[in-house]
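INFO batch 0412 | record 1 of 1 | parsing
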Amino acid sequence: MGKKVIAAMSGGVDSSAAAALLIEQGYDVVGVTLNVWPSERSELTCSRTCCSITDVDDARHVCNKLGIPHYVLNMRDIFKHDVIDYFFEEYMKGRTPNPCIACNAHVKFEAMLQKAEALGADYIATGHYSTIVKTPQGEFSLKRSKDTHKDQTYVLYMLDQRQLSKLLLPCGGFTKPEVRAVAERYGLPNFKKPDSQDLCFVGPEGYAGFIKNNCAALARPGNILKKNGEILGKHNGIYNFTIGQHKGLGAFSSEKLFVTAIDAETATVYVGESEDLFCDTMLVNDLRYVLESEMHDGARVGVKIRYSAKEAGAVLHIDGDSATVVFDEPQRAITPGQAAVFYKDDIVLGGGVIVRALN
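INFO prediction complete | emitting tokens
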């Protein structure tokens, strides 16, 4: 029997194919689905998210087909504290959080790893599109996946050497169509299942509805202001806005305006023209290092300021837990709360959380 792997099974095709690939490679695989839903929401079965009751059933059916055990781990408390509460707290600060990164950091790759080690497993595995390779110096590094359109290294930048040494990412060497083909070859019932699109905890009421119904403090009205101080109108909550947003502002002005800043203390949303969104410097804190030898003061790096952003060249100026990032060219809509991830070619060096643009 090969080494024991705890495979995170979300019910989606990626994690299902990952488990199948691990079996092919000779591992002793145990499927685990994380129960993160608060008990009062346990009946929600929104098919466009992950981790719902429907997804648990899908994961169980896949494990039965593969002939491996399947268990459900209760992660409700840690998910509520480190993902949902964090989500609200960030919006209370006028920032735009990335709860999927928080889930990876605190639930999938920390709490789950601790559970796996307690069960005597050698590794954990997920269906993320990324690969783990060793450097000539023997360090573990995170490399972009074969499928550049599906690459998920951006949401894994917080992984440290210990976590990477215990992690397997079987899908990183495949394209999405190839992953679906693996699932079909094994006769897995979810090989055509669509990718999840929404935050797993928002449920059928939608993103804004979830916030409004669960965090009344965020529904505080405030002013929409131009940079010259002109009041354009009132809004019903800063959670409806993010830096760079244009949608929803047409009712207040015939000009094409964009959200340029959010003041959580006064619940004020500032708007301006597209040119007001560009800046060549930003402050990042809560730095995490994948390859500390490469992510140092003065390092030239490629930077992604959001999941869908193109990589931009920059220089890092590190000061303790923070860094000033100076871009080669101004970047549009640098958004507080989002992750800034640093690359050297296809390798992730680390990253942090954007504090603000520095004008």
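INFO post-check: The longest strand covers residues 278-289.
INFO record closed
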